[in-house]
Structures are given as structure tokens and as C-alpha cells.
Structure to design on (137 residues):
């Protein structure tokens, strides 16, 4: 378990982009160096009020606000970056319709599309246009 509030409060006064990098770096240090997708990971902030990725200055400000208001409900989740997940999903969509990769993708898609970042990128890259063909097969 990582103490999120200490991570944000103990970051010295630096440029906002460096704060994001510092928090991500601290979390990344907890991941084994030989983890295969380490460079493709992002940090997602999750609370019952909102879920977002630490990508910009505003995200750190929002994280601080969530921690001030409801520290017990905030979690940081290290997960595969949504754009990488979309890349992989689009690659799997080129598999034959009856392949195990397609079956797994279709099963997981219901969860992945709940992530707004994944869904927006998937739709923008025409992933949704490919699904009806697979579903009808």
C-alpha cells in the first residue's frame, strides 16, 4: 500500500510537470525493473467522485483537492496506458473472427470501454467501426 498523501505533500516546489513526473516515478519505483511493460504504464487516480490519469498540472491539483476532501477514498492505480491498450486491441481486431484473441478481446472490451480515456481513443481510431462485423460473425 502506498501512502498517497505523503507522495504529493512531500514533493518540493518545482515545475508542475516535474510534480507529475515525481509522483509517477515514485510509483514506478515499486514496480520490478524486469516488468515487461514498465515503460507503457500510467498512473490512474480513482475515487468514487472521479477517475482520471495523472497527465498534466491540473491533474495534480485535482488529486490534491480529492486528498484534502476525501483522503480515504482516493487510490492510485498503476496500469497499462490507455493508448497502449487501444493499440493492442486494434491489433487483435485484425485476427480471424474465431481466434482465441478475438474472444478474449470481446470479453474484455466491456470493461475497457468503461475507461473514458480508452473509449475516446478507441472510438477516435475507428475501433468501434470494426466491432459490428465481429459481433455478427
Amino acid at each position: 500500500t502506498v501512502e498517497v498523501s505523503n507522495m504529493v505533500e512531500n514533493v518540493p516546489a518545482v515545475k508542475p510537470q516535474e510534480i507529475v513526473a515525481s509522483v509517477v516515478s515514485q510509483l514506478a519505483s515499486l514496480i520490478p525493473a524486469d516488468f515487461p511493460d514498465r515503460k507503457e504504464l500510467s498512473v490512474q487516480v480513482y475515487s468514487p467522485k472521479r477517475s482520471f490519469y495523472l497527465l498534466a498540472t491540473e491533474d495534480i491539483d485535482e488529486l490534491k483537492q480529492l486528498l484534502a476532501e476525501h483522503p480515504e477514498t482516493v487510490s492510485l492505480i498503476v496500469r497499462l496506458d490507455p493508448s497502449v491498450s487501444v493499440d493492442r486491441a486494434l491489433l487483435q481486431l485484425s485476427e480471424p473472427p474465431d481466434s482465441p484473441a478475438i474472444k478474449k478481446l470481446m470479453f474484455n472490451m466491456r470493461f475497457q470501454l468503461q475507461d473514458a480515456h480508452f473509449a475516446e481513443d478507441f472510438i477516435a481510431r475507428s475501433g468501434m467501426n470494426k466491432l459490428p462485423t465481429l459481433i455478427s460473425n
